[in-house]
Design a protein that fits this description.
Blueprint: H1 4-9, H2 21-42, H3 46-63, H4 70-104, H5 112-126, H6 130-141, H7 145-169, H8 173-181, H9 186-220, H10 228-237, H11 241-269
């Protein structure tokens, strides 16, 4: 730590994560070189990029103004309702599965073997993107919302259990010790000490994950896992770009409403 005499003798410098300036510049140079090498190895053609700009402008012009027929409106509403229901069911199932996994993955409650099993379940759930899981579920159970529910529920387990287990690890253990001191059982410790401390966090995480699943439900449909995503994909395949733009606008609106409602609910809970 710098003293007054150190500052007086020389110019003070803000501490950094590097040992010295040479190391810092070597790290910066290595990062820049790696980025340039990555761009070169990928081989992105500049001409193709320029042509893509023009094609993108043409696509946007073809998507304006947004329009849809009464039949298309009905299909869009069905897809949106399906996405919302998928999100609710997937979030509910995911939370039900996540609760015991979170207790298993809390190192202040679970024995070491159980702890590693819980952490392993969380790691597996967090290792794959929703689209990858959705593709697997479509192959397993076929096209439709069931595949989407399973994919979103699977991802919910990793997200919810990880954050909830960390919350459990941060609880006040004094309450647990007090209940144990008067002869309380393990279940009574969980019910009257652990659970009251984590209920607000459970509610907040549930609302937040529902918001995430609502957004992701529009994506998994692209691979046939139900929801509005499949309707959007079909509109692009039919070159009905005005209908596509209408669907995109509705998706953006729903996501924004869900985000605002989620933020408001979490503020009220906290």
């Amino acid at each position: 730590m710098a003293t007054r005499s150190d500052v007086a003798d020389g110019e003070w410098e803000r501490p950094t994560a590097f040992y010295n300036r040479t190391t810092k510049y070597l790290v910066y140079t290595a990062v820049v070189a790696f980025v340039l090498y990555s761009l070169w190895s990928i081989g992105i053609p500049i001409d193709r990029f320029r042509r893509g700009i023009g094609a993108g402008i043409d696509l946007v012009s073809n998507m304006l103004p947004p329009a849809l027929t009464p039949v298309q409106f009905e299909l869009m509403v069905q897809g949106i309702v399906e996405s919302i229901l998928m999100s609710i069911v997937a979030t509910t199932l995911g939370i039900i599965v996540s609760a015991p996994v979170a207790f298993m993955a809390a190192n202040n409650l679970a024995p070491r073997p159980v702890y590693f099993v819980g952490r392993g379940i969380i790691a597996v759930s967090r290792s794959f993107h929703e689209l990858i899981v959705a593709i697997v579920m479509v192959k397993a159970v076929g096209f439709g919302p069931l595949a989407g529910v399973l994919a979103l529920g699977f991802k919910t387990v990793g997200f919810f259990a990880k954050l909830l287990s960390e919350e459990i690890e941060d609880i006040d253990t004094g309450q647990m010790q007090a209940i144990e001191a008067v002869g309380g059982s393990r279940m009574q410790v969980y019910l009257y000490s652990v659970l009251p401390q984590i209920v607000p966090r459970i509610i907040g995480l549930s609302i937040y994950r529902l918001d995430i699943n609502l957004r992701h439900s529009t994506v998994v449909g692209i691979v046939g896992a139900g929801g509005i995503g499949i309707t959007l994909l079909n509109s692009f395949q039919k070159y009905d770009f005005q209908y596509s733009s209408m669907i995109i606008l509705v998706i953006v609106g729903i996501v924004m409403i869900g985000e605002a409602a989620s933020a408001y609910a979490r503020r009220r809970v906290q």
